Amino acid sequence: QVQLVESGGGLVQPGGSLRLSCAASGFSLGYLAIGWFRQAPGKEREGVAYIATGGGQTYYAESVKDRFTISKDNAANTVYLQMNSLQPEDTAVYYCATRRPYGGDWLASETYTRWGQGTQVTVSS
Fold first, then answer.
1. Is 90 exceeded by the pLDDT of residue 54?
2. Which of 80, 23, 75, 24 is nearest to 51 (CA)?
3. Where are the beta strands (DSSP E) in the chain?
4. Does the pLDDT at position 101 exceed 90?
5. Nearest alpha-carbon partner for 88 in 44, 123, 45, 41
6. If I label 14, which of 2, 63, 73, 113 is the partner at 20 to 30 A Cα–Cα?
7. pLDDT score, position 15
């Protein structure tokens, strides 16, 4: 079966770190671009980070730049999001999503064709 599954979320204190994983089954991430998105209660889904097919081109939302790092392990067919210096405003459900290589805006969620179920990240003291 074709699946995209996020894991690694949880409760962390401000200033702490988490590493999220996005594991693909039934298809290869090697041919796809991957984005991480998040959605907090009452707010719209927003793009957090992006990695292109080749793995060398990445983009980040300004709010997470220098704190979050996206990476991909093709052998494991998994994408990661390392999150450091977490703050309460980072609290949200985090989703990974994939799309075919495309020159359009990486923030356009409608261009992503496969989505995971999400993993909860809560940052609280």
1. no
2. 80
3. 3-7, 10-12, 18-25, 33-39, 46-51, 58-60, 68-73, 78-83, 92-99, 114-115, 119-123
4. no
5. 123
6. 73
7. 98
